[in-house]
What we know:
The structure holds 3 protein chains of 3 kinds.
Chain A: H1 2-27, E1 30-41, H2 55-61, E2 66-78, E3 83-87, E4 91-101, E5 104-113, E6 116-126, E7 130-138, E8 141-150
Chain B: H1 11-18, H2 24-36, H3 38-63, H4 67-83, H5 87-117, E1 126-133, E2 135-142, E3 149-155
Antiparallel strand pairs in B: 2-3
Helix pairs in contact in B: 2-3
Chain C: H1 3-11, H2 15-37, H3 40-57, H4 67-88, H5 122-133, H6 137-147, H7 153-160, H8 164-189
Amino acid sequence: MRYRFRCLLVVVVLTLSWFGAADSLLAQESCRISVDTILAARNDNVVDPKLKRHIGELQSMFNYTSYRLLSSESLNLSVGQSGMVSLPGDRRLKITPQRIHGSRADIALLMIKQTRTVFETQVQLLNRGNLFVGGPAYQNGNLIFKISSAY
Amino acid sequence: MTHPDSNVCDEMLLDRYLDGDVDAGERVQMEAHIAACRQCRRQVASLEAFSQNLNDRVQHAVDSVDFVALEKQVLNKALRQYRSRGGLSRFVASLKYIIPATVTAGLLLFFTYSNYVFKPPPVPSAIINSFTGSMSSVMIFETPETRQTILWYTEETDVESEPNAV
Amino acid sequence: MHDKELILRLQRGDEWAFQLMVRRFRTKIFSIAFGITLDTEESQDIMQEVFLQVYRTIGDFRGDASLATWLHRITVNRSLNWKRRWARRFKWLHVSTDSTDGLPAAEPESDLPSPEIRVANAQTRQQIDKALKMLPEQARTIFVLRELEGLAYEEIADAIGIKLGTVRSRLFHARKRLREILQPLVEEEE
C-alpha cells in the first residue's frame, strides 16, 4: 500500500513537472516583434490617422505637436534568430530575441547607421509592452521607434 | 519559417503574406513565388474573392436592418432599466445588498489599506539590462503612471539635439 | 468625442453619450454578430443585448482595454453563446422547402441595380453562408474578426482572450478549411 502510494506520488510529481516544463517550452519559442517608425515634429499639428490609437500615449510622453507614421514592420523571430528592420536615414535595427521567460522577452537590439554601430542594448521587454527609442534628427523632426513584442 | 526555395508552396507563409505579417525579405519571396505558381495565385485570388464576398454578404445584411428603429428600442430599454431602479423599488432592491455590501466594503478597505502600505510598484514596460554605444548622450526615462520605458539618445553626427523632447 | 471622454460620460449615466456610443458602434457589433451567427434576427438581438450590458456594467469598465476591444469581447461572447441559448428554447422559423440549415427563405430581389463587379445575389450569399457554417465556430469567429473588422492578431487575441499563437493557428486552419471548400468552385470556374 505504502509502495503504491509512493509510486503514485512520484507519477503525480513527474506529471506536474512535465506540464510546467512543457508549458514553458512549448509556449515561448518565438515571438513577434513590431517596429513602428514615427516622425515627431513641432512645426505643424498633423497626427497620422494610423497613430490615432497611440496618440494619447505619445502626447503624454513627448511634447511634439505632430506625429507621422513613416513605416511599420513586423518580424516573427524564433529565439536566437536575428531579424533586420530598415529605418530612415540609412539606419538598420537588428533584433534578436534571446530568451522568453514568464511575461518578458530578453531581446538584443543593435542600431546601425551606414556601417557604424550606433548602440547595442539588451532589454527585457514585457509581453505586449513597448519600448520607445528616440530620437535621431530626421528631416524637420526626430525619429521615434516604437518597439513591441508579443508571444 | 521561410523556405529557401521559393518554388515550394508554404501555406502558412502565404497566410501571413495575406495578413501583411511578413518582413521585407519574405514579401519579396512570396511575390516571386506567387508570380510563378499558378496554384498559389488561384488560392490567393479565391481567398480574396471570398473575403470580398463575405464583406458584401454582411453589408447586405446590414442594409436590411432598420438601425434607427433598433437604436430607439435599445435606448428605451436602457432608460426603462435605469428608471426602474428609482424610488421604492430601488430601496427594496438595495435592502438585500446592504449587509453583504457592508461586509465586502469592510474587507475591501482592509485589503486596500494593506496593499497601499505594501503596494507593489507597477512594472516597467522594458528593463534595460545593458547599453553601449558611440553617441553624445543617452537618457532612460519612464512615464510616471504607466511606466512606459523611453530610451532617448543623440547621435554624435546630429547637428541639432533635442534635450527637451520629453 | 474621444473614447476616454465618452466612457466618463457613460459612467455618469449621460444618455446622449449612450446614444452616441450606440450610433458609433451599432454597425460594427451587428456585423461581427452576423459573421458568427449568420442570422439577421439573432444579430439584432445580440446587438441590443451588448449595448444593454454595456449600459449596465460601464461602471465596472477599468479602461485596461479600449472601448472597441471591450465591445468586441462582449459581442463575441454573446454571439458564441447564442446557439447554446437557443438549444434550450423553442423557436418557430418560417423556412421555405428550398433553404437548408434552418435559414430563412431568400428575400425577394431588390429593385435597385446591383454592382456588376461584386455579384451579391442570393446564390452567392447562400454559398458564403454554407462555406462559413462549415467552419468550426471558434475558427469562424477569428476569420470574421480578421476579414470583416481587419483586426490585428493582438487585437483578436484580446477580444477572445486567447494567445497570439492560437490566433495564428486557428486562422491558418480556417483558411485551410476554406481552401478545401472553395476548391471545387475554383475548378468549376475554370
